[in-house]
Design a protein that fits this description.
two-stranded antiparallel ribbon, alpha+beta, 21% helix
Amino acid sequence: MKMVMAVIRPERLQCVKDAMRDIGINGMTITHVTGRGEQMGLRFTNRVGEFVVDEIEKVKIESVVEDSDVDRVIETIRRVAETGNPGDGRIFVIPVERSIRIRSED
């Protein structure tokens, strides 16, 4: 099993959730996060001067999937979350050694 973790633009969240459901992936954890990547934040200029917002709001989606589903999940997220602009996000794939259900011994 693998955990596919994607950090995306908040406005793309619903589209990604819908696309994941369409390919049969329903389980996910969604966390609202802030951070910065290559874009190094946003620079604004107004009458008072210039300021930088260097922590951008993003959404992190985590989903544990079978190894055979990883490429399909990655392609789905990339296709749906991409806007073509800097700050579209990042996808990470992490090995999962075990998954233990809390309510029973499955």
